[in-house]
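User: For my dataset I need records formatted as: sequence, then C-alpha cells, nothing else. Please produce one.
Assistant:
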Amino acid sequence: MEKKYLDLRGLSCPQPVLETKNAIDDRSFDSFEILIDTRTSLENIQRLLSTRGDLKYTVDEGEDFKVNISRI
C-alpha cells in the first residue's frame, strides 16, 4: 500500500488533529508522514495516536515536527 503525506503547517487546532484522524481512518494507506509546526498540534496528535493500539509513531523535531505513523 501507499504512504500518505500531509502538510498541516499553518493550520489552527483542532484542524491538524481532525486531518490526522481522517488520514488514519482511510484504510487504503499503511503509513503516513505528517508535518506540523506547533507543539500544541503535536501534543494533540500524540494524544490521538496514544488511543490507537493499531498504530506506532515516531516524531522528528527540527524547525517543524515530522510525525511518521504506521500501522502495526
